[in-house]
Amino acid sequence: MLGSVRYAPDGAAAEDALEAGASVLAAAESGWEAVSAAVLDAAVAAVRRCRTGGWLPADLERIVRREDAGTTLAALVVDALAAEADRPPAARTPRDPRWAGQLRDLGAEAWWPSGPGYLDALAARRRTSRFETAHDVLAALRALARLPRITPLPAPPPTAGSGPSGAAADRALGRIRGLLAKAEATDYAEEAEALSAKAQELMARHSIDEALLDRADGPGGGRPGGPSAVRIGIEGPYEQAKALLLDAVAAANRCRAVWAADVGFSTLVGFAPDLEAAELLYTSLLLQATAAMHRAGDDHHRALKAQGGTPVARGRSRRTRDFRQTFLVAYADRIRDRLAAATAAATASASAGSDPAAPDLLPVLAARDLAVEETTGALFPDTAPVRLRGVRDAEGWHQGTAAADRARLAEG
Predict the structure, then answer these.
(1) Which of 7, 69, 281, 286 is 20 to 30 Å from 170 at the Cα level?
(2) How far apart are CA 383 and CA 373, in angstroms?
(3) pTM, full prediction
(4) Cis omega (within 30 of 0) on the bond before 94?
(5) What are the CA-CA distances from residue 123 to residues 41, 126, 133, 371, 409 (Å)?
(6) CA distances from 196 to 190, 257, 384 (A)
(7) Parallel, antiparallel, or unpaired: how do β-strands 228-233 and 265-270 relate?
(8) What is the rounded distance in angstroms from the CA atom of residue 384 to the CA atom of residue 380?
(9) Residue 308 and residue 141: Cα distance in Å, rounded?
(10) Nearest-CA neighbor of 120 among 14, 25, 209?
(11) Tens of pLDDT along 225-254?
């Protein structure tokens, strides 16, 4: 029955298979408890297939939530992850060190009393019938079974520890988070972007410090590890523009971004401190860009309505989408220049003030750039450029560029 559900074509055939399967399970002669145990066995097997196919817990929850209009299937996937974590690990199958942390973040814990009691507990929790419960569980298993294999991420490097260098890194990241929090909280675009620019300068300085520490320690010096990678979800709408913004942030922080539109995320490749900085800044800038886009969109429609009393209701949704898509693309394009300038200024300042006895900074950074480039090529040997669509609103481009260009980078 799982096979018929798994391989049914999308659409009406899939729904027919789910309903037929749910009817069989709800009335199975073997009993509801036996069905419950079998369902959990299938869920554990599905999670382990996904794990060997390159998926991490956060990726599984996000992709299922993205494809399901509600949160039902995503919650059931979290239950599947919890069930798999409760089972002894498969022989000779190493678990990614990020796995446990992502399970904690998702709250993936077995809340049901036992395997045979899972479906009854689930039905009581959700106040659904046996048929509805079986239908949703089968839909979650189908979603997991149909996921493609993706590029596995390299294992993260060992942490640097809690010594003086680790404490300094924590202080630097604390200051960066503080600046970005202020940028998100202010209602003044100029202040927000000045704070973001200052945060980028601190990120670049932090990256340089980490690079010099790695070089000073040398091989076997207690700071092993090369480039790593993280996945960052790109949620709709306007996925292309958001992926472009992430690419701009990644480039400014000496990382590479590879967008996979079909599964809704970008993979960032870089050294661990740079990855953390890029993720922090992207999250903040996306919030700021979205807020600025909504403000500019409201102003744009008010201006259109005021022009001679021309009605704007007809075709408004299409114009709004074009305006917003173009706004975000222009914002990302200009932010790329601003962040690159902040990184270049921090690098030049560090080079001018470096200790003559210390290793030359530019060769160190060049070596790290090469390592990131080689790792990206090894992980993604076949990539292609993406043609941007929907960038055709002149006012949206003007407003997006202006929103990203208000920062006074000398401030802070």
Answers:
(1) 286
(2) 13
(3) 0.78
(4) no
(5) 18, 5, 6, 51, 56
(6) 10, 20, 31
(7) antiparallel
(8) 10
(9) 57
(10) 25
(11) 689 999 999 988 888 899 999 999 999 989
